[in-house]
Task: structure prediction
Amino acid sequence: MNRIWNKAAIILEVLLYAGAYIFQYFTRKKMGMARFVIYKNHGWENQYPLSAIKYGILIVLAALFLIEVILYVRQKPKRIHNGIQLLVSAAAVSVCASWIMTQSTSSARAYYFLALFFAAAAVIQLLRACLSFSGGHADQVSKKEIS
Amino acid sequence: MRKTAYLLLCLTMAGTLLTGCGSTASSSASKSAASAASTSSSAKAASSVKADEVDTTKVYVSPDWVQSVIDGNQKESSNYVILECAWGTEDDDTDYGKGHITGAVHMNTDNIEEDQYWNVRTGAEIEKVMANFGITKDTTVICYSDSATNSADDRVAFVCLWAGVANVKCLDGGLAAYTKAGYTLETGSNPAKAATSSFGTTVPAHPEYILSIDTVKDKLQNDSNFKLVSIRSKDEFLGKTSGYSYIDKAGEPKGAIWGHDTDDGSYANADGTTVGLKTLEGYLAESGASTSNELAFYCGTGWRATIPFLICYENGVKNMAVYDGGWFQWQMNDELPVQIGDPASSDCVYTTVGQLSADKAKAK
Result:
């Protein structure tokens, strides 16, 4: 069961990155899409404390990544598979954090939408890795590898 | 191995996004114009077109006239700018990339519109845009877009007139008519050349061409000679759809009359040229209006409405304007009065924006 969830999570992550790319593409290419995005941007900026939400997302990502690192360090023996997991998590967090910190609606109209895509992908990756390091899936993988 | 491939895929996608979002019109403007120059020279050598002069106030001009300007056979040939008008940066404008009129510069409509209500930018901002594109009040500005029904060029032409440019033209029938006439296109990029002198008058020179939402509200209530003319589709006018993916509510300002749509070809002849004043007068007469009324054309966000404005302008009508905010700005205020249905019929419903359902966006 854990393996199914693990695969589903990987697929979801890939879909989120692909979705972000497609969303950005059509926001640049289609006027209606761009105006829809800008309309939503204005609405969200008026309705929600987006600046606080931005930093909240970054704090959550940092905390989850820290937990993942601690779980990885405590793990014995260390497996290559888990090291790759850690690297993927670091990449996902870096992509999301750099997007949130370096971009804005001025440089990318779909800034908020893409931040959501990246944050969702990063959170899924971090949770997947944490669950994997804390037992369940890692054990199953290792059993499969051994057999 | 699969994990490594997955990691690389994610990083590649993210990298593409991060680098892709940074490109702007300025980056495209730095492209070499070498290819443009090479192809245009052959086109120019093959063509020496002459066409009858047209009045300064004439807006819609033939492909022959445009070519004659390019070939140096009009008085306008000494000081003109050709604008290929479309939404989006030059990099994202596939039409411009495929081929454009010799010397044409891409004009992104975002240059002239702010992004809250999509209204025309402030006078100071437009003056800067004009300077960046080498336009002064004495420059002849020739606008075109891909087809007769695309109103991007009409929108830009309208803004130029509003700003104070005296001689503004639209290629009648768009690029389709130009190529149909047998003229060749060039490829490559033509960067805008900044003006070397000031615009020459206060921008806007004609603020009366644009009516604000407050003025329209006031006139609808207090001026019986005022006619607010919807240049939208019948379904938009009847409140069946907003006509836009990003507008949830449908309807029209209370008191509006229908002036037919430009997107459906109602303002284009069979050959793609723009209809004359008589056709517009016919549309107005359907609702009991005429050019003797004070007219304010509007649409969703201000593009389509500029076509009847320009038709009036080139025919010497003086008492017309564009309500720039259109339905988009109107439906943002819950208090404003709205009509749903044909006001000439008894089943027209009068309500307010706040009472409208929010499920009328056009399907994406």
In short: Chain B is about 30% helix and 15% strand.
